[in-house]
Design a protein that fits this description.
The chain is of the alpha+beta class. Helix content is 36%, strand content 28%. The chain has a single domain, classed as Gcn5-related N-acetyltransferase (GNAT) (Aminopeptidase, 3-Layer(aba) Sandwich).
């Protein structure tokens, strides 16, 4: 695997975004948050951008946010993307390890949650398998947004492996929906 450098961006930086945007748009050509929303999330302190770079080239990026308080503090991985030609090389797993270390050290999170498209296509199954290989547990609850056609399922990774991961997808979506509501708010 390439030698990579991990960075977290807490305030909007147009030059850094310009280096990440291609990977973001390639992975999420439709339905992704706009640049204005991402910028607003960082400016308001509710979101973070992360990137993995090899030399000066960005090869992966993520958008995250924090939800919950105290012992229920969770990291939401809103978007995670690896440059298309490098997928399958271990960079996504490396990026998740960096996100986990950052979230634990800086924010004391107890777990990481994501929402995955709930479909039966090969692409959907590959995405879910990626998260499962990295320790995430798929919940059975299927959430249907009113504004998007595809359904989603929550996945959770507890950082304390001695605790069982409950099949609490509906409860996880309360966190995810609250995060989205704040992210899309203008101020």
């Amino acid at each position: 695997m390439l030698e990579l450098e991990f960075s977290t961006i807490e305030t909007w930086d147009e030059a850094l975004w310009a280096r990440m945007e291609r990977i973001y748009r390639e992975a999420f050509p439709t339905g992704a948050k706009t640049k204005a929303i991402l910028c607003n999330m960082l400016d308001r302190g509710i979101g973070y951008l992360h990137m993995a770079a090899h030399q000066e080239n960005v090869v992966a990026m993520a958008v995250t946010g924090l939800v919950g308080k105290g012992k229920e503090r969770l990291l939401i991985v809103d978007y995670l993307a690896v440059e298309q030609k490098l997928r399958g090389s271990g960079i996504g797993t490396w990026m998740l390890k960096q996100l986990r270390a950052w979230a634990t050290k800086e924010h004391g999170v107890e777990g990481i949650i994501i929402e995955a498209e709930s479909g039966m296509t090969e692409a959907h199954l590959e995405r879910i398998q990626f998260w499962q290989r990295n320790g995430f547990v798929l919940t059975s609850y299927v959430h249907q947004y009113s504004m998007v056609p595809e359904p989603y399922q929550a996945m959770k990774l507890l950082l304390d492996r001695s605790k069982p991961v409950l099949d609490d997808g509906k409860a996880i979506f309360k966190y995810i929906n609250a995060f989205h509501k704040v992210a899309y708010r203008k101020s």
